Each structure stands twice: as structure tokens, then as C-alpha cells.
């Protein structure tokens, strides 16, 4: 899928922007956190992206950091939170603030985000505890993908291979940070066979 876009910023109309990538204009929805970090029109920009395919549309979401994208990916896994709501949450608070609110079980802070009621905030605490990437692991528009993003991909691959979540998470412990997904899966499978 589309993982990253690099090009020239053509339009800014929150929450949407348009990036020209070699003559093709990509319409991207961004959080207000990312929007405030964008350069002036006509300047070069690079964003991490997530493509969301719905029955009626293909939507592209952009993020200034890999941590913000990883947080978005975790948010849309929570029952009752769609892509637009997740973007609204990330507009109200950055990835660090969200991780802190979840860790502290601050339902009041979480329910202050647009579209989030008390029940959804409580569900977020339950389903996101320990799964959010702190912003300080990847900040800036040109930061390489966070190691936690690779670890999530390794765990997802192990789950697809039929291992349960506990086994998959135990298998990735001890894998050096920065290991690519293919090598990480190989090492994790080796750990599982011990």
C-alpha cells in the first residue's frame, strides 16, 4: 500500500491537503497536529500515510511522524472508532498525550476528544493499554519509521501464522531495535521453537 508520500505541497484546507508527487495530486486528510507542522505552499513535504478502503471511498491519511501513524493504526482497531474519529482524536491531542491519558486511565481527558463519549473512552483505556508508541521515539517530518512499528508488523505476521497474541509478543522480546520485518519474523520463529 501507500506508506509514504514525498512531493510538493499544493493545497492546505484543514483537514485536507494536496501533495503533488511527480504530477499526481494526492488528497490527504491530516490531523491538526500534523497540519501545524506543514511547510508553506509550494515547499517539499514528506508524510507517513495510511490508506483506508471503504465501500464508498479510498481515503488517504497523512502523519508527520511514524508514532502518530502507529497511534492512528491502534485507534482504528478500537471498536466504535473509525478513521475520521481517530483523526479527530489525534487533532485534539498528540500521540504522547494520548498514550499518557490511556496509561493514567484518564477517561475525562479521553472523552474530551471530538466524537468520544465516556463508554468509548473506557473502551480505549481497555483496548489501548500498553499498545501506544510514545511520540519521542519518532518526531519530525523526515524521521525513519519507529522500531515499534516494525515490532507491530512482526507480531501481526506471527498472528497471521496462527500464533496467539501472548506467544507472538513473547517471541519478539529480545529482537534488536531496527531489525527489518523479514529478519524479525525469522528470529521470532526461532524463539518460538526453543
Outline the fold blueprint.
Blueprint: E1 4-13, E2 16-21, E3 24-30, H1 32-35, E4 44-53, E5 58-63, H2 66-75, H3 83-92, H4 95-103, H5 107-110, H6 118-128, H7 147-160, H8 165-172, H9 181-192
Parallel strand pairs: 3-5
Antiparallel strand pairs: 1-2, 1-4, 2-3, 4-5
Helix pairs in contact: 2-3, 4-6, 7-8, 7-9, 8-9
Overview of this structure, please?
With about 190 residues, the protein is of the alpha+beta class. The protein is built from nine helices and five strands. A five-stranded mixed β-barrel has the order 1-2-3-5-4. Strand 4 and strand 5 form a beta hairpin. Helix 2 packs across helix 3, helix 4 crosses helix 6 and helix 8 packs across helix 9. The longest helix is centred in the C-terminal third of the chain and has 14 residues. The protein is globular, with a radius of gyration of 17 Å. About 5% of the residues have low confidence.
How would you sum up the major sheet?
5 strands, mixed, barrel
Our Rg estimate from Cα atoms comes to: 17 Å
Q: How would you state the average pLDDT, rounded? A: 85
Distance between the termini: 34 Å
Number of distinct helices: 9
Weakly predicted, low-confidence segments: 137-147
Total strand segments: 5
What attributes characterize this protein structure?
single chain; 194 residues; alpha+beta; 5-stranded mixed barrel; globular
Give me a quick take on this structure:
With 194 residues, the protein is of the alpha+beta class. It has helices spanning 32-35, 66-75, 83-92, 95-103, 107-110, 118-128, 147-160, 165-172, 181-192; strands at residues 4-13, 16-21, 24-30, 44-53, 58-63. α2 packs across α3 (83-92).
Amino acid at each position: 500500500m501507500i506508506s509514504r508520500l514525498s512531493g510538493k505541497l499544493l493545497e492546505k484546507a484543514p483537514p485536507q491537503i494536496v501533495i503533488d508527487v511527480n504530477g499526481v495530486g494526492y488528497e490527504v486528510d491530516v490531523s491538526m497536529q500534523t497540519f501545524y507542522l506543514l511547510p508553506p505552499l509550494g515547499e517539499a513535504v514528506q508524510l507517513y500515510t495510511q490508506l483506508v478502503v471503504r465501500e464508498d471511498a479510498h481515503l488517504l491519511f497523512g502523519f508527520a511522524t511514524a508514532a502518530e501513524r502507529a497511534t492512528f493504526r491502534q485507534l482504528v482497531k478500537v471498536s466504535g472508532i473509525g478513521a475520521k474519529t481517530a483523526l479527530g482524536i489525534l487533532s485534539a491531542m498528540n500521540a504522547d498525550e494520548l498514550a499518557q491519558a490511556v496509561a493514567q486511565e484518564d477517561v475525562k481527558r479521553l472523552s474530551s476528544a471530538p466524537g468520544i463519549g465516556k463508554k468509548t473512552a473506557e473502551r480505549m483505556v481497555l483496548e489501548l493499554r500498553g499498545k501506544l508508541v510514545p511520540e519521542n521515539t519518532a518526531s519530525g517530518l523526515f524521521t525513519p519509521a519507529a522500531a515499534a512499528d516494525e515490532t507491530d508488523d512482526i507480531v501481526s505476521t506471527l498472528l497471521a501464522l496462527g500464533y496467539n497474541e501472548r506467544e507472538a509478543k513473547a517471541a519478539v522480546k529480545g529482537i534488536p531495535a531496527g531489525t527489518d520485518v523479514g529478519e524479525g519474523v525469522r528470529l521470532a520463529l526461532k524463539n518460538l521453537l526453543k
